Amino acid sequence: MTLSVYLSGEIHTDWREDIMAGCKAAGLDIAFSSPVTDHAASDDCGVAILGAEENKFWHDHKGAKLNAIRTRKGIEDADVVVVRFGEKYKQWNAAFDAGMAAALGKSLIVLHGADHQHALKEVDAAALAVAEEPRQVVEMLTYVLRGTLPG
Q1: How confident is the model over 77-115, as pLDDT tens digits?
Q2: Is 19 inside any structural domain?
Q3: Which of 65, 67, 92, 146 is the most buried (most CB within 10 A)?
Q4: Signed CA dihedral, 95, 91, 39, 86: sign only
């Protein structure tokens, strides 16, 4: 069995790399995709391609819409969507992605620390699993693909 996994959420730590490396080390057959993780490119893509905006709202609006093309495609094509909520920033976009995945009936894994448990209770309730560490996501994906528990 091959899985398509979309890695959504915060872009300030290397959690994606940890999951991908762990799955590779385990020999799992997984195709990963994600949003653009270059923060400046993601913020400025709309104005870089479609032209400058004096008003920050329209600057952000252009970028959000352009990024949504990639995000929608990634979530729609995924078998599993992993959404990471980081410590430093409020990731409203991650919450939106989790909601979209849930609405589409995607298998959703949410990843965040214990300190976000209350704030994300509705998001967690929509998920099939909630993890605190990338290692746990690797173990979940190993179980899904192989039916084996961590050794």
Answers
A1: 999 999 999 987 778 899 999 999 999 999 999 999 999
A2: yes
A3: 67
A4: negative
